[in-house]
Amino acid sequence: MLALVCRRMVGSLHVLPYPATCPRSARIFAAVLISVSAGCATSRPAVPQASSRLSAARQKVVDQARRETACDKLTVASLHFDCDQVGFVRAAFWAAPIDLFAPEVASDQSLDGIAILFRTAGVRHALHQETPRIGDLVFFDRDGTAADLYPTQVGIVDGMQGDGTAAVIGWFAAGPRHIVMNVRQPDEAARDDGTEINTRLADAAESTAGRLVRAFANPYGD
């Protein structure tokens, strides 16, 4: 469990395939223990995994996420979600239907939305650092040297390529869109042919999406 949320001392986290240790591990792990106790881009990378291989719940989540191109699209079953990164993923999962907020975690008024998401994933033993599957959540840190207790960005894995490049859909700085990430090659922004494999999420040099991944989460239990 500790390896799921631990950052390497150099400031970057490789959630797969490298378990890591670091000085901040106790702080992050404590957060999980406390929980246990208490408009979209018009293009996305080609994905070899066919939709027919997805479970019904995963298919509903990614289908809903792809429809969420503006604030007025974040209404599911008559419930409207906030126009931000947390509202985006909650609305997508509500279509499954899966509530990403555990009541015992959401009742803590000191937590913001993404902290509730992350701690809920911990409570439900959903965090992992395996190769993500389409429909999984992915949590990102602010930058490669941030000391935040919780991640600062979240998205949904929407496609996988054979080299480990994943398409991620979510509500980012410019609104709902797709980005790409590759945790196997976190330092590379693009292939030799110019194809992007890691979107830059911040101004820092170490801000490729692959470097900023904190952890993945499987809320489906499959």
Structural class label: alpha+beta
Helix content: 10-25%
What gap, in angstroms, lies between the N and C termini?
A: 18 Å
Number of DSSP strand runs: 8
Low-confidence stretches: 1-51
Cα shape? globular
Question: What is the element string, with H for helices and E for strands?
Answer: HHEEHHHEEEEEHE
Notable characteristics:
alpha+beta, 6 helices, globular
Walk me through what this model shows.
With 222 residues, the chain is α+β, with helices and mostly antiparallel strands. It has one domain (2-38, 40-217). It contains six helices and eight strands, in the order ααββαααβββββαβ. The protein has helices spanning 25-37, 56-67, 85-94, 103-106, 113-123, 209-212, and strands spanning 75-76, 79-80, 127-128, 137-140, 153-160, 166-172, 175-181, 213-217. A six-stranded antiparallel beta sheet has the order 3-8-4-5-6-7. Strand 5 (153-160) and strand 6 form a beta hairpin. Helix 2 packs across helix 3. The protein is globular, with a radius of gyration of 16 Å. The model is unreliable at 1-51 (pLDDT under 50).
Topology, element by element:
Blueprint: H1 25-37, H2 56-67, E1 75-76, E2 79-80, H3 85-94, H4 103-106, H5 113-123, E3 127-128, E4 137-140, E5 153-160, E6 166-172, E7 175-181, H6 209-212, E8 213-217
Antiparallel strand pairs: 1-2, 3-8, 4-5, 4-8, 5-6, 6-7
Helix pairs in contact: 1-5, 2-3
Give a brief outline of the structure.
The protein has 222 residues and is α+β, with helices and mostly antiparallel strands. Helices cover 24% and strands 17% of the residues. Strand 6 (166-172) and strand 7 form a beta hairpin.
